[in-house]
Give the backbone structure.
Amino acid sequence: MNKLYENDSYMKECNTVINGADFTENGAYIYIRDSIFFPEEGGQYADTGCIILNAYELDVLDGQVTDGGIRYRVDYSDSCKKSFGELPALSDILVINSEIHCVLDYDKRYDRMQNHTGEHILTGTVHNDYGYNNVGFHLSDDGLVTLDLDGPLTYGQIIKEEARANAVIYANLPVRASYPSKDELKDIAYRSKIDIEGQVRLITIGDDKTTVDICACCAPHVAHTGEVGIIKVISIVNWKGGVRIGILCGRRALEYINHRQNIIMGLTDLMTTNEDNLIERVRGQMDEIKDLKAKLSGALEGDIVSRIEKGDPDIDRTHLVFVDPDFPAGPMKNIYNVLKNKYSGYVGIFAGDDTSGYRYLAGGRNIDSTTLIPILNKIGAKGGGNSDMIQGRVQSTRLSIESVITEISLL
Ligand SMILES: [Zn+2]
């Protein structure tokens, strides 16, 4: 097959013929004489697009390198299915020597070319500065482009490399493909992930004065580094003694920046401030919430203490206090002490509800509080403590808690 995408990565359409076809339960596959569709290879997904055959439009859904050559999966497009009431079997139209017109999904391809070339540039600058290699590359369509470097780098070092890589973009250097002979290759220092059998295709970034990178690669790239637009490092994780860097280039980086900008604009609106003051404003609000929580705790505690002191009949009957699930821990301790001083026998405070269970502090004055542990364990409580107080969680209902404790207290 004539790989048109290798010599001209900007070719969007071509005419060619079908060289062969396979029909399996997974779909129809064709082999073609000339192709603008790069197959899945070297960490990059296959190009998509469509072919026009007679009056029919077929989607090109996938392309895989097989022993028999590059095989493309095709199927009638949705619009074709809608336009024609009944369509011939694919095996009747995908016949050898049929003439077809191919159209590449060029927007998707160009996005990949920007991101793929950006990966070469950043890996190249890191390789030049640290001698590291990119030992794993993945160009997904909807997430980050990741590159796995086989040596450690700090955040500061990576940000410096990001700046160097972007300087290569500003210099708008040529990106060229070449096919050196075995002899010529011996004198060229190039990066390669694998030992390549047969003809090596080298991608050189640079001009006569400056060579940024030389790498063996089969994929389509942009012709000048300026087309990459921007290389932005988005994520850094330590990976097998080296580092996995997630980047975005070109239009994909712009979309990412727009997304982040929308988030920041939403926050500045909510906080009624500008973005430079945003962090300070959020910090101020957090402090305010902390103060309010402390005031609320005091008020809640005061209210319950006054109910205990006035002899609230509910508390008088059970010597137990039930409060909301998010009741703060500090006031719980104070209320427990007030209960203990007021009543003999077991007392306790329970924060929660019947569905999600209760946190508790319990025990008693002149009693070993730990004697309450086996009693509460009967209704599934977990926890521990000492003779002054026990604490923990119980997944039970208010009624069960009241009855198990008050029954014992009455004995
Ligand atoms: Zn490449």
